Amino acid sequence: MEVTNSTTIRESKDTISPPSSGLGDGELKVQIRKLFDQFQLQIGTTFPSGISILFGPSGSGKTTLLHSIAGLVTPDEGWITIGGRNVFDNRTHVPVERRRVGVVFQDLALFPHLSVEANVQYGLASLPRTERLQKSNEILDSFRISHLKKRRPDEISGGERQRVALARALVIDPCALLLDEPLAALDVITKAKIIDDLRSWNQAHRIPILYVTHSREEVFALGERVLILEHGRVVAQGTPHEVMSAPRQETVAQLAGFENIFDAEVTRIHEERGSMICRIAGTRVDLETPLVRATVGSQIRIGVRAGDIMLAVTQPVGLSARNIIPGNIVSLDQRDVMIVARVDCGIEMSAQLTLAARDSLHLKPGLAVWLVIKTYSCHLMAK
Amino acid sequence: MDWQAFWLTIQLAVVVAFILIILGLPLAYWLTYSRWRWKFLVEAIVSLPIVLPPTVLGFYVLVALGTRSPFGQWWQKLTGHPLAFTFEGLVIGSIIYSLPFAVQPLVASFTSVDDKLLAASATLGVSKFNTFRRVTLPLSIPGLVTAITLSFAHTMGEFGVVLMVGGNIPGLTRTVSIDIYDKVQMFDYAGANRAALVLLFISFVSLSLVYAVNRKRWTVFLWK
After folding, report:
1. Alpha helix (H) ranges present in A143-261?
2. How many whole angstroms separate alpha carbon B202 and alpha carbon B181?
3. Fewer Cβ atoms within 10 Å of its own Cβ: the N or the C terminal residue of chain B?
4. pLDDT at site A7
5. CA A238, CA A224: separation in Å to the nearest integer?
6. What whole-number distance in Å separates Cα of residue B82 and Cα of residue B73?
7. Residues 6 or more apart from B70 whose CB is under 8 A from it?
8. Counting Cβ atoms within 10 Å, is residue B203 exposed (0-12), middle (13-18) or buried (19+)?
9. Residue A229, beta-bridge partner list
């Protein structure tokens, strides 16, 4: 199960010392280095309890980091502690089966020959029968899959399989939970429901949950805390908005795929509302955006995804969205089953809509429209 | 039909198939998961009986079992009689001869079990042995059936090794295949045919079983 065989252990110039005894603090601390043919994974960070998102392109080391924590891959050097328990350093190597780290693999790895219930109970074999049943029933209930108990993994839906995999990993009361793009294949609604259930489970248990993804939607949907990985290193971390607004993160924004990126100047700051007003450079268009570390007059950059912009043919009233910008349609381009509308508002913005929306609103170039953008759809980056 | 030879052959095949599964499971497990650099040599040795002429194999087994070899001497001290030209000798020769037919299907089955399942099992706190027992083995049932059936059928039909190691002692080492040879030598073609038909039938049934448990679902759909 080793990912590589290059295990040259070298003397490091950086002195890496194990952490002072932070007993039972529930944190996951990682300070590891592993050399590959192509790149070097070098991570030193602490994951508090709650969801941390590992975001980055494929090959950036996300999965290797996860596998190192689970014990499926051995780092060349460094140390890992989980809840104050040392599971890896230059003398210690707690094997996978004794780490008590829950893992949900990308392809879930449910046991095909076992029922849903037997899958969930798989890690509880050492418990007496009554306790095993009680635990598995509890978790089956909290992930709403009790009615599937007797089914096999190939007899249930993709979303249900995800729930089974989560339940199986969590029923053993792990010290940490590692999720390797577990929801990548699911639709947004199913995904959101599963995340809600995972969140409520974790409110009672408070363990570090590492969630690997390369989907920007998931970053913002889940984000308590995001770490951006590139070439085996953490290049930025913070809340999704902080990470996006941190300097040097232009590459990340592009990576995250914003169709609309504007230069702007901060004109007003509403500390108490957690928002600020920015004027898009060269226009009279003001956008209300989330508050970041900035002062009036700061030059910033705003990213808005085309899918986050709504389009109205009459001026909307009574909306919670704070940004309603008038403009005229420049063009409507079909991409697959979506329409990208380019709208001139003093600056050109792209909005995404469905074919049905185009037809029922009788959209055509030249038509006057209003763009609706929610405050939190405006992502800030440093210039 | 020489029923004595027939029952002896069945007995031999059952005993050999049973012992081969006991030996084959750990050996196949090791061959599947070991990362020892010289593993390929062991793989070659296990597969040797497929290509080696049975007389060559039989000759060396005979030498190894003989009273001049350390093993033969040890056996004689233990049991009071020599190994060559006995049922036990036949069992040992057959085990070696049929070993690849037990080990290879098992290795193929174990290899086809997704590594992710084994990793998942480990992360759930289950030891390697219990993972084998609870995941690898249940998912390798077709391979297990194949291994048992093939080693049984292959032992039923062997000739060269039996002749070299066992000779032709009625009720002790005289199997069906040797009986057929004898009958042909004595121009008893009808008798030879009866015995040969029985072997043909058993082989066909065995192979049908092997292909039935290993068939893929789509092949069934194709003929629907």
Report:
1. 158-170, 188-205, 216-222, 240-245, 250-255
2. 18
3. C
4. 36
5. 8
6. 8
7. none
8. middle
9. A234
Predicted complex: ipTM over 0.85: no
In the structure encoding, which two tokens stand for residue A71, read together? 């014990």
**Rounded to an integer, what distance in angstroms lies between the CA atom of residue B181 and that of residue B193?**
11
Q: Is the dihedral of CA A25, A26, A31, A32 positive or negative?
A: positive
Q: What tokens were used for A93?
A: 């190597």
Q: Which of B118, B125, B139 sits opposite A172 (nearest CB)?
A: B125
Residue A17 has pLDDT above 70, yes or no: no
Specify the pTM.
Answer: 0.69
For residue B170, give the amino acid letter: P
Q: For residue B223, which amino acid is it?
A: W
Check CB contact of A75 with chain B, cutoff 8 Å: no
Helix intervals (H) in B157-214: 160-166, 176-185, 189-214
**Which of left, alpha, beta for B193 (phi over 0: left; psi -120 to 50: alpha)?**
alpha
| B119 touching A (Cβ < 8 Å) | yes
How distant is the alpha carbon of residue A210 from its chain centre? 9
Q: Per the structure block, which two tokens stand in for A69?
A: 């924590």
Specify whether the CB–CB gap between A87 and A159 falls below 8 A.
no
Question: Phi first, then psi: what are they for A162, rounded to 5°?
Answer: -60, -45
- What are the pLDDT digits (tens) for B46-61? 999 989 888 898 888 8
In this prediction, what percent of chain A has a pLDDT beyond 90? 36
Contact A364, A342 (CB under 8 A): no
The beta strands (E) that lie in A64-173 are given as 77-82, 85-88, 101-104
Q: Distance between CA A151 and CA A166 in Å, rounded?
A: 16
- The CA distance from A67 to A69, in Å, is 5
Element spanning B218, H or E: helix B217-222
Percent of chain B clearing pLDDT 90 (strictly above) = 48
> A7, A122, A152, A173: best mutation site toward chain B, by most B Cβ within 10 Å?
A122
DSSP string, B14-74: HHHHHHHHHHHHHHHHHHHH---TTHHHHHHHHHHHHHS-HHHHHHHHHHHHSTTSHHHHH
Residue A26 pLDDT more than 90? Answer: no
Nearest residue, CB atoms, B124 vs list A1, A107, A122: A122
Min CA distance, A77 vs chain B (Å)? 22
Does residue A127 sit at the B interface (CB-CB below 8 Å)? no
Whether A279 and A262 have beta carbons less than 8 Å apart is answered as no
Q: What token pair was written down for A189?
A: 């609604």
Residue A258 has pLDDT above 90, yes or no: no
d(CA A30, CA A53) in angstroms, rounded, equals 15
Specify the DSSP class assigned to residue A19: P
Whole-number Å distance between alpha carbons of A181 and A105: 7
Q: Determine the Cα–Cα distance for residues A351 and A307; give it in Å rounded to an integer.
A: 6
Chain B interface mutation, best of A99, A110, A111, highest count of B Cβ atoms under 10 Å: A111
Nearest Cα to Cα of residue A116 among A165, A179, A82: A165
Give per-residue pLDDT as tens, A239-253.
776 665 443 345 554
